Amino acid sequence: MSLAEVMEMLKGLEKQNDDLHKKAIAKLNKLEQEIVDLKKKNEEKTKKIIELEGKITQLEDEKKQNNLVIFGIDEDESEEPKDLQTKVSALVVEKLKCTLEPSDVNFMKRMGKKNKNKSRAVIIGLSTVKRKWEIMSNCNKLAGTKMAVCEEFSKNVLERRKQLIPLMKEMRAAGKHAVLKADKLYVDGELYEEHSIKPSPVSTDKGENSVSPTYNKKKKAKRF
Q1: Smallest Cα–Cα separation from 74: which of 116, 137, 135, 126?
Q2: What's the confidence (pLDDT) of residue 214?
C-alpha cells in the first residue's frame, strides 16, 4: 500500500470520526434541550400545584370563617344533640353574656371520635361573622376556667400558627403587644414579616443591656 493510499484512508477515517462526533454532539444537544424543557414543565406544574393548594386553603378558610371551636364543655355518655345545644347556649349567654338565637347557629357538633376519658371539643358554625366576633371579643370572661373558645382554621393555617406561637411568646416576654390573627403575627399593631427580626439593645432595671427583637413595620392589624 502506497503512502498516498494510507493518507487517503486516514482522511476517510477522520471524516467518519468527525461525522460521529457531530452526531454525538447533536444528540447531546437534543437531550440537553429535552432536559431543559422537562425542567420548565416541572416548574410550571409545581407552580400550578402551589397555586391550587393556595386556592384550596383559601376555600377551606372561607368555609370555616364563621366557625368556632369550644373546649372544656363536659360530655356525658348519654349526651344528645339538644343537651349539647343547652350547654353551649349556657356558656355563650350566661358566661360570655352574648346573645345566641337558634337562627344564629348553622350547625353544632362534637369533634372527633368519642372518648370516655375526655370530653371532645365542640365545633359551632355561626350564620354571621358579626355573631362570631361578638363571642370572641368576650372570651376573656373565661379566664381562670377550663373552658376556651377559638376560631377554626385550615390545616395550613394551624401549621403556620404553630410556627409563630414561640415568636409571639418571645415578643411578649420582650414587653411588646403581640397577637395572632389567623396565620399572621402582629406586634404592637404592625404586621410581622419573616426574617425581619433584628437584635436591639434595651436597658434593664440593673442598667445592663439585653437583646430585644425589633421588626419591620408593614401594616396595621385590623381591629374587630
Answers
A1: 116
A2: 37
- φ, ψ at 75 (rounded to 5°): -120, 120
- Alpha-carbon distances, residue 79 vs 83, 100, 199 (angstroms): 6, 21, 53
* Cell 425589633, residue located: 214
Q: For residue 50, which amino acid is it?
A: I
For residue 133, give the 3-state DSSP assignment: helix
The reply to whether 36 and 92 lie within a common domain is no
Tell me which amino acid residue 183 is. D
pTM as predicted: 0.56
Distance, in Å, from the CA atom of 178 to the CA atom of 192, rounded to the nearest integer, reads 9
Cα–Cα distance between 44 and 96 in angstroms, integer?
Answer: 50
CB-side neighbour CA atoms (13 Å) of 126: 23
φ, ψ (nearest 5 deg) of residue 195: 65, 15
Per-residue confidence (pLDDT) for residue 210, from 0 to 100: 34
Place of cell 358579626: 130
- Check: CB of residue 127 under 8 Å from CB of residue 68: no
Q: Is residue 81 part of a domain?
A: yes
CB 95 within 8 A of CB 172: no
Pick from 40, 63, 86: which residue ends a domain?
63
